[in-house]
DNA sequence: TCTATGCGTGTGTACGCACACGAAATTTGA
DNA sequence: TCAAATTTCGTGTGCGTACACACGCATAGA
């Protein structure tokens, strides 16, 4: 292992000077700088991140603006857990994260949570930019204060965020198209159930829908695609009639695709005897969805690994603050295909950090 | 952040004493120990791994016994890359890994590589225990020298290895069964192609076959399953006739499952016009397999994420040596389902560390 | 009775490596 | 020749680890 001292000795300077060169902190004559740089290269010197982290300990604070979760809205639990895991891991780097939860259906709650957040003057911010208008104000504030921020799960264009960590929704839709195509025949028809006019996240879900339709169009399949729209997720259950009648009316429907994370509600709504005959594809591995996967009612879930997204956000921001490492502009999470047969191998990390 | 000094101050002892308690190094009176332990618990003290690693720097050496790869046998490339990434990452912990490659078809090469390996007296060993008899001798040597070791990719029973990192092959077979079931109808038939009597790894592939058959049995599907056996992988290509005739003879065959990593060879063998009509399922994301996936000839690949296996081996062994962290007895890697639509999101890490 | 030896317990501190700041040394300009 | 500017050095810091040593007390031998 080559250390800074080794380099210093070879260059006949002190370790401090080498450090200045390493970090471009100036105050070194061109001559010395060249000499040191040459030796660094020759010896293939790499900073010891362990020692570096220890020395850098500067007690940064992070702040995370993310929707809250509860029994009804469990989707955001996974990113919370991932963020929790990441926070634990980077504590030793002198980094502390605070979560500012808000109500995903209420722009005011979003704005309010941010006002609380900004009071703590964090060194960097992770946010889920659900509301367009409010986000613009937020970004302006962050820019003014020169606080770097990254987007988690939702990619809003036209900001100079550090990066985006999340799923490629259009591509996820394509994948859903492919899977629905595989598990049906040409004669079958497919039903797409939109669980609501989404207040938020409509962009992501719309992208999935478009990706899905894109696949079917480009693959020249003659499979007919039906759409059924509900306005509120709860209405789905209340209007069991609607969906069951629909399926009776169109007996050729063998595939069902639910582009939101609410496939479980659709499964609940459909009569048991009808379920057996359907191939159902959904998104996101919420506990409810996993339940229906286990029972065999859901055939495929496409996971965006939101636990990993949360985790990766913390790690990315930390590397940026501590090691000045500039991340890729977009960090897409894998599109994971989950079935009854492989779900148990997919979330072992998550369970450990689950917040109950 | 609570430090050892904080604890020491509160307990009116020195940091050294706290350290003795933390590591059970003895030489502390029961009274003092209890007091310190109580405070540690109260304050929820966690060792700062950064500082710990820096202080522990002990320059461990690892050794890895793993099959070599080349253009023809590319399967082992991914674990090599993963090991490479891991090695880079743990260098700062004073850990150096040496790879001892061997010919996967030659037991003598395996034994010889180990003899070279043991000369370097490593502090821990990662090995792929392909050959049963030779492995027994190896294990004996390692036990005598009290060198800890873990199994990568192949799980040999009856040894006191530190842990096994790899795929659950039986479960992978079940998954293949499910996927084949999904992409065919009840009237269709399925062909399983065994590309050879495997010299090595026959246990894993046999497990896959059994898992596959198990699924079809338990699911009460009446789908007929054919088997076609070749003795050498190359023979497949030479005997194109055999497989093509088979498919002509059994026109109901719509699904093909290849439980080895050689699905690409099978694709090469089958006539183009026949391919279009088949749903092919294979294992492992070798470049050749990915090629056929991209073309649309292969429908599903089940990946055992061997890059991650290699990476995780290094990390696990490092945590064991440096932080005395005892790993789980088995660390199963996820069963990842790869299609044309999601393969590009799955291996971004791998590309960076690929060894050309 | 006094030194020697031992043991159990606990302290002090050097070390690992990079970082950053104040101080020192050297060069430059007037 | 002196002050200012530039370049370089020395050292304390972050935190845990582990070794040498110190202290108090007990037992043994002279």
What key phrases describe this protein's structure?
six-stranded parallel β-sheet, 47% helix, Rossmann fold, alpha/beta, 12 strands, homodimer, DNA-binding, six-stranded mixed β-sheet
Question: What spatial order of strands do you see in the largest sheet of chain A?
Answer: 2-1-3-4-5-11
Query: What CATH first level of the largest domain in chain A would be assigned?
Result: Alpha Beta
CATH-assigned fold name of the largest domain in chain A: Rossmann fold
Structural class of chain A: alpha/beta
CATH architecture of the largest domain in chain A: 3-Layer(aba) Sandwich
Fourth-tier CATH superfamily name of the largest domain in chain A = Response regulator
Order of helices and strands of chain A: HHHHEHEHEHEEHEHEHHEHHEHEHEEH
Number of helices of chain A: 16
Q: What does it look like?
A:
Two copies of one chain form a homodimer. Chain A is of the alpha/beta class and 356 residues long. A six-stranded parallel β-sheet of chain A has the order 2-1-3-4-5-11. Chain A has a six-stranded mixed β-sheet with strand order 7-6-8-9-10-12, sandwiched between helices. Chain A has 16 helices and twelve strands. In chain A, α8 crosses α9 (202-218). Chain A starts with a helix and ends with a helix. Chain A has three domains: 4-47, no CATH class; 58-166 and 306-334, Rossmann fold (3-Layer(aba) Sandwich), CATH 3.40.50; 169-303, Rossmann fold, CATH 3.40.50.2300. In chain A, β6 (189-194), α9 (202-218) and β7 (224-229) form a beta-alpha-beta unit. Helices cover 47% and strands 17% of the residues of chain A. The A-B interface holds A 1, 46, 48-51, 53-54, 91-94, 168, 171, 174-175, 178-179, 182-183, 185, 215, 279, 299, 332-337, 339-342, 345-346 and B 1, 46, 48-51, 53-54, 59, 91-94, 168, 171, 174-175, 178-179, 182-183, 185, 215, 279, 299, 332-337, 339-342, 345-346. The structure holds a DNA duplex (30 and 30 nucleotides).
């Amino acid at each position: 292992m080559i250390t800074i001292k080794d380099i210093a000795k070879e260059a006949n300077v002190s370790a401090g000077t080498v450090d200045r060169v390493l970090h471009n902190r100036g105050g070194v004559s061109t001559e010395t700088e060249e000499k040191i740089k040459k030796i660094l290269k020759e010896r293939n010197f790499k900073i010891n991140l362990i020692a570096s982290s220890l020395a850098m300990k500067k007690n940064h604070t992070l702040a995370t603006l993310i929707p809250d979760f509860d029994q009804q809205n469990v989707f955001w639990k996974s990113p919370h857990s991932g963020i929790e895991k990441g926070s634990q891991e980077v504590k030793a780097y002198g980094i502390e994260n605070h979560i500012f939860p808000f109500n995903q259906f209420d722009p005011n709650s979003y704005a309010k949570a941010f006002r609380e957040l900004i009071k703590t003057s964090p060194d960097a911010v992770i946010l889920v930019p659900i509301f367009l208008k409010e986000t613009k104000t937020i970004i302006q504030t962050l820019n003014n204060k020169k606080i770097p921020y990254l987007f988690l799960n939702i990619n809003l264009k036209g900001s100079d965020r550090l990066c985006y960590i999340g799923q490629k929704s259009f591509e996820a839709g394509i994948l859903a198209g492919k899977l629905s195509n595989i598990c049906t025949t040409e004669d079958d028809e497919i039903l797409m159930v939109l669980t609501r006019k989404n207040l938020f996240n409509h962009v992501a879900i719309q992208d999935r829908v478009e990706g899905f339709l894109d696949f079917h169009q480009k693959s020249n399949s003659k499979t007919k695609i039906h759409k059924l729209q509900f306005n509120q997720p709860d209405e789905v259950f209340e209007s069991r009639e609607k969906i069951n009648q629909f399926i009776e009316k169109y007996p050729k429907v063998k595939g069902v695709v639910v582009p939101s994370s609410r496939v479980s509600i659709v499964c609940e709504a459909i009569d048991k005897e009808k379920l057996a005959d359907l191939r159902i594809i959904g998104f996101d591995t919420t506990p409810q969805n996993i339940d229906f996967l286990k029972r065999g009612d859901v055939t495929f879930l496409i996971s965006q690994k939101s636990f990993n997204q949360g985790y990766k956000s913390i790690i990315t921001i930390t590397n940026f603050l501590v090691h000045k490492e500039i991340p890729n502009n977009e960090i897409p999470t894998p599109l994971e295909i989950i079935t009854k047969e492989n779900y148990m191998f997919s979330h072992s990390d998550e369970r450990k950090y689950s917040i109950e």
